[in-house]
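Design job #97: recover the sequence.
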């Protein structure tokens, strides 16, 4: 019996920091639920997500960077809160699956014949365009065009578009209120030195009153991993302080992270390293590290750890790129990696990025790799 207990203790001393993925799954399921409406700009989706993360920070005992966990800012955004009806050739199309409207589109109500421009492009009146696409990918716009573009999935609609009946409602919000959620675990030996983990919690929100974009991989998975790391470090304070920032406004152009670097709640020169997590819900084909070639010594450390423990099948090196929230920190001379996983489901910026199809293939291994990497940075 004593031998069994000893083996049990030894096992957990080795594997104790492999975070229970049940917590991660719970976070992903909550953030992608209908109640959060794509963590975007209608039905208070982003605000609900911010409040949920705020509550998790408080539960874990994180210390706010300032007087509050929230860093407020605002920006303009084009939203689609209501009517989203499109019929082509008399056939009613399903929002998100059969069609999307371009994110900068104006609202309109129209019944019109369509003039063929070429095999993929069709014109209604001067204010309406119809485009056939192989994949429907949505985003967020901070301005409104003077026309409307409807993208139709040509895999689901094989006819030549000849007529359209549409009613689309948009609402431009010049000052949409958002907030970054910021907290930290105080270091035990060098509290003024800080390592930071970041992830954006916003997604695309909803297109009309009945269609929303869940955003499981992008980026509920990143937020869930961040919160799992926060849970670990809250129970095991480190020599350095460990900070956690969940950004808003990433999908609108990295606006939350840009605001933070322009109005930092911690001196940027105190940040020894930053790891940004975005699209980390897969991993069959390994991971990619943006800024690997910018910080070769740090990348060598990461690779050495991975080679020793065989965590990830492959770590791909990538150079500088303005493709997620690490970017403006790098521009301010804060060393940073942006890590994303590869392989698995290809859903991206569409209605199919759902929690039930997200495998979290390399979640535990990525978790352990980050823990070991941060530990090495604090030596």
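Job complete. Output follows.
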């Amino acid at each position: 019996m004593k031998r069994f207990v000893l083996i049990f203790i030894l096992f957990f001393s080795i594997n104790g920091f492999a975070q229970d993925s049940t917590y991660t799954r719970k976070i992903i399921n909550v953030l992608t639920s209908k109640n959060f409406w794509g963590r975007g700009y209608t039905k208070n989706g982003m605000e609900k997500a911010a409040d949920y993360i705020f509550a998790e920070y408080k539960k874990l005992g994180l210390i706010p960077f300032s007087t509050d966990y929230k860093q407020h800012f605002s920006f303009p955004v084009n939203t689609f809160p209501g009517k989203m009806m499109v019929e082509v050739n008399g056939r009613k199309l399903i929002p998100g699956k059969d069609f999307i409207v371009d994110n900068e589109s104006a609202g309109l109500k129209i019944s019109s014949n369509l003039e063929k421009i070429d095999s993929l492009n069709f014109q209604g009146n001067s204010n309406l365009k119809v485009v056939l696409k192989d994949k429907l990918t949505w985003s967020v716009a901070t301005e409104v065009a003077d026309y409307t573009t409807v993208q139709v999935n040509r895999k689901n609609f094989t006819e030549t578009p000849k007529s359209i009946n549409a009613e689309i409602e948009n609402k431009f919000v010049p000052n949409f209120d958002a907030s970054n959620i910021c907290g930290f675990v105080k270091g035990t030996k060098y509290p003024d030195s800080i390592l930071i983990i970041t992830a954006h919690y916003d997604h695309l929100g909803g297109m009309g009153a009945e269609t929303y974009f869940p955003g499981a991989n992008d980026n509920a998975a990143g937020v869930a991993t961040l919160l799992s790391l926060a849970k670990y470090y809250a129970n095991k304070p480190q020599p350095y302080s460990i900070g956690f920032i969940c950004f808003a406004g990433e999908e609108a152009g990295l606006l939350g992270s840009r605001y933070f670097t322009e109005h930092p709640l911690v001196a940027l020169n105190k940040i020894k390293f930053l790891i940004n997590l975005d699209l980390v819900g897969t991993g069959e084909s390994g991971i990619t590290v943006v800024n690997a070639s910018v910080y070769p010594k740090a990348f060598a450390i990461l690779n050495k750890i991975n080679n020793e423990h065989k965590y990830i099948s492959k770590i791909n090196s990538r150079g500088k790129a303005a493709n997620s929230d690490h970017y403006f920190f790098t521009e301010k001379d804060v060393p940073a990696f942006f890590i994303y996983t590869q392989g698995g489901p290809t859903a991206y910026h569409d209605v199919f990025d759902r929690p039930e199809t997200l495998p979290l293939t390399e979640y535990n291994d990525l978790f352990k790799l980050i823990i070991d990497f941060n530990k090495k940075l604090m030596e």
